[in-house]
Every structure is written in structure tokens, then in C-alpha cells.
Design a protein that fits this description.
It is a single chain. This protein has 974 residues and is an alpha+beta fold. 16% of the residues lie in helices and 43% in strands. The chain is built from 15 helices and 54 strands. Strand 50 and strand 51 form a beta hairpin. It starts with a helix and ends with a strand. The N terminus is likely disordered.
């Protein structure tokens, strides 16, 4: 595949290079650019020729020079972070040019690309869009630009760790958000084995960000499958426009007043270097390294995995305690079932050991003792009458015989003692990102780019479990030829799981190595019966039994614990092998072995200029291949290879009417995945100019997403082995696990089945209700989205943006928990399915930006609500009804000094996920920053922090709480 990838682009490169006309004689463009007020030279100003690639940046004294093949007249464009853009027409001499820039914040002046895949003023965008420029990034108070995305209108996030955040808009937030697309320089940033982006752990470095654009809502008509709830596009800097060397160093602290940790250091270094030659060749490289102590998961609430809800009790009061951030205690068994299992095994063993002379030891004991409960002396007398070889197993059986006969064994579940997350997960967070790119200007308007992004790190991610991502890495590599009206590109994403593992499996298997559950549970129950027979209370008997059963348990930090932990976390999941005869020979593994890849090919052509701009017309097409390779540690690929092929094409036409007062755009896209039927997704938009810089927009958009790679092919044990997640394709549900002819039972009926034992002593099987899966398996979900909005300048210094939306989801992909009876034991499966009926949601948002002199005041509020739900649908809207942001800043309150404040608040809401479910309290957070600009050395010193009031909060249930990060930073040549 990589060889084909290379060959295609060599051919493309030569074809385009061979068809470029001979270059005209170059001319030199030179001059000086200064601050209009201070008359000082400005360094780092971007100088380009409008409509062409290439350019340069001013030197430390403000001078600039570059060569171009452009013929006069042309327009020279000067732009600089924090200053207004200046355009100057060059009609004659191109040397000795003097430009002056003025500090300015121009409301509504941004140009965006992603809304229509063609440049347009943000005020004229046909759909809602948010933008973060390089100037905005320089002034943010948050530790990184990615953290500051929360300040955008309608944006919410799920923070799973210090460096792992999932962004979302318009409801249905999740830890790994498969309904939200993220692109970096036109490359889908998803991890192929996960089908969602891993935040910005492996992404773009802050010094290399040119701009960020965010589209709330559906965008499939232009960008293909996915992006039902939003699309984020990040663009890096061009070395022709942003040459030179830059670096940024931040150092700070976190875990202030944290009960789980002492104060810890936070350090981050970013470096960027870029150079161009003769406006022809360009090269850039960027590097970022972050190191810190991660936030600690410490939610020890008692979680009922059957009802998926928090219940009362802790380890001391609930024998079946299962802490959310405690792992290994997911392993649970029913006391009476264990006792009966021991009884049946003893009967079979004595029958075999006696050569059939004693076919049923229980019947023999019943005959010997009658209705009486045998005391110790009677038990000893009975044992004396047995052959010596049979005495030990019968002696071990006596507590269960007595307990069952006397009714001392309750119909109650008990769980093993777990380990806290901090003892299992690697909290030594690291994130290393490196990128490099080569640029060649084939002509004034055509450019070839070879780009590579690579990153590695250690973090924690929450899915159906808490996953410790250690030394994982993702690389993205792209070849592209692009011009004013077209692009052709190919890229690949290479995902490597490194030393990543599942925390709950690790905790469970450490327990198994210290003492197998086949010994631990019988030992617990036998000692519980003994304590109860001796007159102890139920609580005291449970405490005594756990103490005895836990003898030999590997305590955190002990040599035995560390040896077992190291062995399990470095053994792959697929290598696990349980030896029931000799448990000491069992092999346990919690490690992933994922080497999944993605290959993507795409092209687009814009016919607008060819049609003399009478209409705007674009067409494009793409092809994608998922190459899944987890060696059986995630997918059902231990003994077979899995490839998924997808392709699609789109067209868009737009026309301005009535003296450019109205613009209509029609777009449509067709996509096909090999496992599903093709989908057509249309989009219709209209923009109506009601006054200068005031526009009303209306849109009808459709979107869809295929079931993720995991929705299709996952086969993974989670929850300490308490549940198996399987893909929703027929080949897994039916061919492998036979859920068609050995039907599983619904979650609700299984709970009723268990509860019935409290009244009758035995569960009532008549309460069990079968679940019937669609014979075609899970299928794509789709959405229809209606939006009405207004964006405009009510005053020259007041920008208003308001919208309302209504979404209708069909075939919504959710999941069901079912219980299959396999040989008398119930196995819990989590299976992706499509919700019956329609799921609706609606909402609105309002944003204001107001300038008062040099002060910027901003604010936004958003409202999101889910409509009526289908029967049996698990509500995972996971979004607060109300959230708002407030901002206040001045980049130069006095000479060279600036500040910025960002406050956000959101309402409480209920979070529902496959990992944990519970209430997320309302919270507020304040970010603040002071800046000192030092022009003489082209540097800025920042003092700031996120959540500076240090009010710990969490954004999604089961994830850690975050406190303040305080930092001081130095940035050179920002």
C-alpha cells in the first residue's frame, strides 16, 4: 500500500510540473513594515501577494525582501497577529515599499474556508461557524489553544485526563466522540482503531497553528461520513508566510490543595523553525514536549453494573461493592450459586473418588444427620467413617452443606477486593509531538507539500473502561498538490498502541495471580458460614470472611504486587490462557497490541473561476481504507485480517442573486462503505443580506456516520471480565456468539429475574425476556438538521451571532446490555444496535462581541435539549441544558502590558456511558492571564492559569476532577 501511495504522487508531481509554463522573469519585492503609532519596525509580519502562494516575513528591524514571478500590477498583503491587515496595490516599482500596520481588533473581518470549502467572509457563512485565529491564540488564558475551545459558543468537552479531551457540540457528548470529526491540514485526525481523534495529544503544536475553524452540527454533505455533531479543522502555518524561529516555554504547577497528591510540576516546551528560499522552496519543523502529573481518578462511589446506576454503600458496608475508579472489584459472584457449585463439584468428585460407591455424598449426609444441623463433633464422627482419601474434600464441603441446610448462605452477590486506579494507571503524563513539511511552489498558484506529523505519549482515556495509554504513538503522513482551484492529496494514519492496557483487567488479573477466584469465593463463603454459625452478625461475618479470603493478597507497592502488575501489563490480552486445573500455570494479559492503519485519497476541483464566477461550482471525491490489526486484543482479528473500504463523491453549486443580496447553495454527497448500503446526504443553504454586514442564514443539512470500526468488529472483555463488548455485524453476533439461535435476555428482565430470588429464594426464569437482534446487524445512523441564524454588526463595535437548530436522528447508534445463558451461567454482552424510532434534539445559542476602546468584552450562552425518546433507549445526551462563557481582555492596557479573563459556567446534568453513569454537578471555572510584551527581543512573558480559583470539577462521570494549573511562560517570536 505504501508503495502505491508513493507511486501515485510521483506521477502527479511530474504531471503537474511538466504542464507548468516556463516561469516569467522574477522580480524583487522589498521594503519596510512599521508600527503606525511607534514607528518601530515590526518583526515577523507576513508579506504575500494576494491570490498566490509564497511570500516572506519581515526581519527583526521590519525589513523584507523576496522574489516573485508575478507581474505588476499585483496586491501586496501584510498581516500580523494583533494588527489590522494592510493591502497595497503595486503598479510600478516593487522596491522601497513602506507599510504601516495599526493595532486593531476588527469584528466580523475573518475569512473562513470550512463552511463552504471555499474562502468567504465569516459574516456571510451559510452555516454556523466559530473561528480562532493566531492572534486569538496568542492572547488566550488557557494553558493551550485546545483547552480554549471550551470558550467557543456551544462547545462542550469531556476531560478524561490532563491531555485527553473530547470536543463536542449540540448534544450526545461522549468520552471518545465518534460523532465529531477533527482535521489537521486536511487530514482526518482519528485513530483508526478508535474511530475518533485523541484530542490534541498527537496533533498540531501551538506555535504552528494558523487558525482553527469549528462547524457545529452536521457536515457530511461536504466532509463525508461522521461529523454528525460537528467538525473541527485546524490549519498549520505556511513557511513562506511565517518563516523564522520561535520557541515557547511554560512552567507551572498543578494538584494544588489536592487530597490525592502533593503539588506537582507542569512543563511544556514548543519550538518551531521555518525557512524559505527564493519564494520557491520552503521547509518547516515543529516540536512540542509536555510533562506533568495527571489528574487522579478518585470516584469511589458504589456502582451497580446491572442497573448502570450509583447505589449506596462502600467496601465496609456492601459486600458487593464495586467502586467506579476501583478495579478488580467488578468480579462478582452469587454466594448461593457458588455454594451450590461447590456442592455439585463435591458430589461429582466423591462419586469418582469412591469408584461410584458413594454416588451422592449429600444424600448420604442427609441420611446420617436427618433434619438436624451437624455440630463439630457430629461432623468429625461422619468424616471418621469415610475412607481417608475422601475426608479432606468432604471436610471442605461441610461449611457449604451446613450453610445451605441452615439457610445461612444468602442469595447475595459478593465481589473481590479491588485496587484503586492510582495503583494501576500510569499518571506520569507525557506528550511529544514532532512535525515537518517540505513545500515547493510549482508556479505562483500551484504548490506541492510533503508533510509528516508524529506524536507519542502517555495519558489516560475513558471508553468502556479506563485505558492507560503508555508510549502509544500515531503518525500522519501526507503528500498533496494544491492550487487556487484544486487539490489532490493522499495521506495515511499509522496507529501503534505501544504499552497501553486496560486498568480493570489489570486489577482483576493481579487478584487472580494472588489467589484465583475459584479459591477466593469458596474460601470467603465457607468462613462466612462459620462466623454466622458462631453467632456473629451478617456484617461482622462478611468482614471476617473477607479478611480470611484476602490473606495473601498482593498489597499495592509490595514486591509481589509490582511483579504481578508488570507481568500482566506487558502480556497481551490475546495471550491470556486460563488453566482451571492448575491456576498457577495460567497466563494473564491486559495489554493492547494495536497496529491499525488508515489510507485516504482525495481530490477536489473548484470550477468557479473557469465559469467566470457566474456560479460557484465544486466537485470532489475520496477513497479510504481501514487496515485493522489488533492481534485479537481489540477486534475479532486474531485469526483473520480486517479491511474496510469506503468511497464517496460530492458536488456543490452556489449562486448569488438580487444584486448579491441573496445566495443559495446546494450540495450533495454519496458515500459507500463495503459493509453497508450507500448513503446520499444533501445540503441546502441560503444567506440573505438584510443590511451591510448583517446576514440571516437558513440551512437544511443532513449527516450520517457509519458504525465505527469498533461498532463493527470489536471483541473485547472489559469491566474486569464482567462484560464482553462485541461488534454489531452478523458475523460476530450470530456466527461467533450465536445470539440468533441462543438468544440473550434483556437487561431489564434479567434484573427482574435476579430480584425475584429475594421473595422465593430461587430466581423466576419466567421473568426473562428474549432480545431479538436485527438480522442485518447494526447500520449507519443519520440526522436531518434545520437551522436558522443571524450574524451581523449591529454597531461597528458590536457583533451578534444567534442561531436555533432542530435535529432529527434516525437509526441512532446506541448499545444494549444483554445476558446470554451459556451452560447455566449468564454472560453479559454489550452490543451496538440502532434505536427504534426517531431521536430528536433542539437548541439555540447567542454570542456577543463588544469593543470598548482597546477592551474586548465577549459572551455566549447555549441551550441544548433532547426531545422524546424511543422505548428502551438509554439516554446518553450527556449535555447540560445551559452553559455560558464570558470574556474580558485588553492586549495593551498600558504600554506592552495586557490581560485576558475567561469565565465559564455550565448546569448540572446526568451522564450516561458504558463505563459509568451518574450526576455531573454544575461548575464554574475562571482562566486568567497577564502578558508583558518585550519588543526589543520579540518576546512575550505570560503569567496565568486555568481554573485559577482552584475549584475542582469533572466534566463527565467517572473521570477525574481537575483543579488549577498555574504557569509562567516565555514566548519568542510568537
Amino acid at each position: 500500500m505504501s508503495r502505491i501511495f508513493t507511486q501515485i504522487f510521483y506521477v502527479l508531481l511530474f504531471v503537474y510540473a511538466g504542464n507548468i509554463a516556463a516561469q516569467a522573469q522574477s522580480i524583487t519585492v522589498s521594503g519596510t513594515v512599521k508600527d503606525k503609532q511607534s514607528k518601530e519596525g515590526l518583526a515577523g509580519v507576513s508579506l504575500t501577494i494576494k491570490g498566490q502562494s509564497g511570500g516572506t516575513a519581515s526581519t527583526s528591524n521590519g525589513s523584507f525582501t523576496f522574489t516573485t514571478a508575478a507581474k505588476v500590477p499585483f496586491t501586496l498583503v501584510a498581516s500580523y497577529v494583533g494588527y489590522g491587515t494592510v493591502e497595497q496595490q503595486i503598479t510600478g516599482n516593487a522596491t522601497g515599499i513602506n507599510l504601516e500596520l495599526e493595532t486593531a481588533v476588527v469584528l466580523g473581518g475573518d475569512v473562513v474556508v470550512s463552511a463552504s470549502r471555499t474562502p468567504e467572509r465569516i459574516l456571510e457563512s451559510p452555516v454556523s461557524i466559530e473561528r480562532m485565529s493566531a492572534a486569538t491564540i496568542r492572547e488566550i488564558a488557557a494553558p493551550s489553544f485546545y483547552d480554549a475551545l471550551n470558550n467557543m459558543k456551544g462547545v462542550e468537552s469531556s476531560m478524561q485526563s490532563l491531555t485527553f479531551k473530547s470536543i463536542n457540540t449540540r448534544g450526545f457528548n461522549s468520552n471518545g466522540n465518534t460523532r465529531f470529526n477533527q482535521y489537521i491540514d486536511g487530514m482526518d485526525n482519528q485513530a483508526p482503531g478508535l474511530n475518533f481523534s485523541v484530542g490534541n495529544i498527537v496533533g498540531i503544536t501551538e506555535l504552528d497553528v494558523d487558525n482553527v475553524e469549528l462547524l457545529p452540527g452536521a457536515s457530511s454533505a461536504l466532509y463525508g461520513a461522521g461529523g454528525i455533531n460537528g467538525t473541527l479543522l485546524m490549519t498549520s502555518k505556511d513557511p513562506f508566510k511565517y518563516p523564522g524561529a520561535s520557541f515557547q516555554y511554560k512552567t507551572g504547577i498543578n494538584h494544588v490543595n489536592d487530597d490525592n497528591s502533593s503539588v506537582q510540576p507542569f512543563n511544556q516546551l514548543d519550538v518551531r523553525m521555518a525557512k524559505s528560499w527564493n519564494n520557491k522552496f520552503g521547509v518547516k519543523a515543529a516540536f512540542s514536549f509536555l510533562q506533568a502529573k495527571d489528574w487522579i481518578g478518585n470516584n469511589y462511589s458504589n456502582f451497580d453494573r446491572v442497573s448502570r446506576s450509583v447505589k449506596g454503600g462502600d467496601r465496609n458496608s456492601d459486600p458487593n461493592y464495586d467502586g467506579i475508579n476501583s478495579y478488580g472489584d467488578e468480579v462478582s459472584q452469587n454466594m448461593r450459586n457458588v455454594a451450590l457449585s461447590v456442592q455439585n463439584a463435591t458430589i461429582a468428585g466423591i462419586n469418582a473418588g469412591s469408584g461410584g460407591a458413594i454416588p451422592n455424598i449429600k444424600t448420604l449426609m442427609d441420611g446420617a444427620f436427618g433434619a438436624a444441623i451437624p455440630n463439630a463433633a457430629q461432623q468429625a464422627g461422619f468424616l471418621a467413617g469415610l475412607p481417608s482419601a475422601l475426608r479432606a474434600p468432604v471436610q471442605n464441603y461441610f461449611p457449604f452443606y451446613v450453610g445451605l441446610k441452615a439457610g445461612l448462605i444468602p442469595d447475595q452477590n459478593i465481589s473481590r477486593t479491588g485496587y484503586n486506579e492510582e495503583n494501576l494507571v500510569d499518571y506520569n503524563t507525557k506528550s511529544l509531538k514532532a512535525s515537518g513539511a517540505l513545500y515547493y511552489n510549482i508556479s505562483n498558484t500551484v504548490q506541492a507539500v510533503a508533510l509528516a506529523n508524529w506524536g507519542t505519549g502517555t495519558s489516560v482515556y475513558t471508553g468502556s473502561d479506563r485505558y492507560s495509554l503508555r508510549n502509544f504513538n500515531i503518525g500522519q503522513y501526507k503528500l498533496e498538490i494544491k492550487g487556487e482551484d484544486f487539490f489532490v492529496k493522499a495521506y495515511t494514519t499509522q496507529e501503534r498502541s505501544g504499552d497501553s492496557y486496560i486498568s480493570s483487567i489489570l486489577g482483576s488479573y493481579i487478584n487472580e495471580i494472588s489467589k484465583p477466584s475459584t479459591s477466593w469465593f469458596p474460601q470467603y463463603i465457607g468462613n462466612y458460614v462459620g462466623a454466622r454459625a458462631a453467632g456473629q452478625s451478617d456484617a461482622a461475618a462478611h468482614a471476617f470472611a473477607r479478611g480470611v479470603a484476602n490473606q495473601g493478597r498482593f498489597e499495592p507497592g509490595s514486591p509481589q504486587f509490582e511483579v504481578a502488575k508488570d507481568k500482566v501489563m506487558n502480556t497481551t490480552i490475546s495471550a491470556t490462557s486460563i488453566n482451571s486445573v492448575d491456576p498457577s500455570k495460567s497466563v494473564y494479559g491486559a495489554k493492547f497490541d494495536d497496529k491499525s492503519n488508515l489510507y485516504h485519497y482525495e481530490g477536489m476541483y473548484n470550477f468557479t473561476n473557469l465559469f467566470d464566477k457566474v456560479v460557484e461550482f465544486q466537485v470532489g471525491a475520496s477513497y479510504r481504507l481501514y487496515d485493522l490489526n489488533s492481534a485479537g486484543t481489540i477486534f475479532n482479528d486474531l485469526n483473520e485480517s480486517i479491511n474496510i473500504k469506503e468511497y464517496g463523491a460530492f458536488a456543490q453549486i452556489g449562486k448569488k442573486l438580487f444584486n448579491d443580496k441573496v445566495k443559495f447553495t446546494f450540495a450533495g454527497r454519496y458515500d459507500k462503505s463495503q459493509n453497508f448500503e450507500g448513503r446520499f446526504t444533501p445540503r441546502v443553504t441560503g444567506v440573505f443580506t438584510v443590511a451591510k454586514n448583517n446576514n440571516i442564514r437558513v440551512s437544511y443539512q443532513t449527516g450520517y456516520r457509519n458504525p465505527t470500526t469498533q461498532n463493527q468488529y470489536i471483541d473485547l472483555s472489559v469491566g474486569g471480565g464482567s462484560q464482553r463488548l462485541i461488534g454489531g455485524l452478523p458475523e460476530i453476533m450470530f456466527d461467533k456468539y450465536h445470539l440468533d439461535n441462543n438468544k440473550a435476555f434483556t437487561d431489564v428482565s434479567y434484573r427482574a429475574f435476579l430480584a425475584s430470588a429475594a421473595a422465593t429464594g430461587t430466581p423466576n426464569p419466567a421473568l426473562l425476556q428474549q432480545y431479538t437482534f436485527d438480522t442485518k446487524g447494526v447500520r449507519p445512523e443519520s440526522v436531518q438538521s434545520y437551522e436558522l441564524g443571524y450574524k451581523g454588526l449591529l454597531l461597528p463595535n458590536l457583533l451578534v451571532d444567534v442561531y436555533g437548530y432542530y435535529n432529527i436522528y434516525k437509526d441512532f447508534i446506541t448499545a444494549v446490555d444483554v445476558y446470554q445463558n451459556v451452560g447455566g451461567s449468564f454472560v453479559k454482552f454489550g452490543v451496538p444496535v440502532n434505536a427504534e424510532g426517531k431521536v430528536t434534539s433542539y437548541g439555540a445559542a447567542l454570542g456577543l462581541d463588544y469593543l470598548v476602546g482597546k477592551y474586548t468584552i465577549s459572551g455566549n450562552v447555549s441551550y441544548n435539549k433532547i426531545g422524546d425518546l424511543p422505548v428502551n433507549y438509554i439516554n446518553d445526551f450527556n449535555t447540560p441544558k445551559i452553559r455560558y462563557n464570558l470574556g474580558f481582555g485588553n492586549k495593551e492596557i498600558i504600554k506592552n502590558f495586557g490581560f485576558n479573563l475567561a469565565y465559564r459556567w455550565q448546569d448540572q446534568f446526568y451522564w450516561n456511558s458504558s463505563f459509568a453513569s451518574g450526576q455531573v454537578p454544575a461548575y464554574s471555572s475562571l482562566d486568567a492571564q497577564l502578558s508583558l510584551r518585550i519588543p526589543s527581543v520579540q518576546s512575550i512573558v505570560k503569567l496565568g492559569g486555568s481554573n485559577v480559583l482552584n475549584k475542582y470539577y469533572f466534566t463527565s462521570y467517572g473521570n477525574p476532577s481537575a483543579g488549577a494549573i498555574y504557569y509562567i511562560g516565555l514566548t519568542f517570536n510568537p
